[in-house]
Hints:
With 202 residues, this protein is of the alpha+beta class.
Amino acid sequence: MKLVGSYTSPFVRKISVLLLEKGMAFDFVNDSPWNENSHVAQSNPLGKVPVLIADDGACWFDSPVIASFLELTQPVPASIPSDPYAALQVRQLEALADGVMDAAILSFREQQRPAAHQLESELVRQREKILRGLDALDEAAKNGAFNTQQLDVATIAVGCAMGYLNFRRIAPGWCVDRPHLVKLVEQLFQRDSFARTEPRVA
């Protein structure tokens, strides 16, 4: 099994953490779709990562679909509840964390543009999405929605979203007045799966 992606993508990290938590062996193929010589589009016509290439050669994308495939392949330890309603709740929290990642990536890309061409309105829009998302995640953490003993896909996604915010210095004051989210992230970052997948520029 091969995981195609970049060391800086929070969505790739999400799948890397999930694979490590499930104890599934995989080879990591460092291939950023932003590079001119990238081969990502050969596996995913959208040219996005992560892409999981299964042992039978099947290509799976995007991260929620890959997570579902891994759950079917290796159901223990479970990362998605077997109860349909509970699974739906977890997937919604995953979508919320994924949305924070999306907004953070868009913010970073906008900031990479020449200063004269950056759209302040776009940066504000993405920042507001991030902050609203973090408020909702903090409330979910307060209500005990996340389990740091056996990680589900939502909990993993939250950790990866916060890791990306720290790595790219997006919304640097995110931890202020969000104590439940801070506590959750501190616990997650102590796990081996998160330590081994800390984002870096290759």
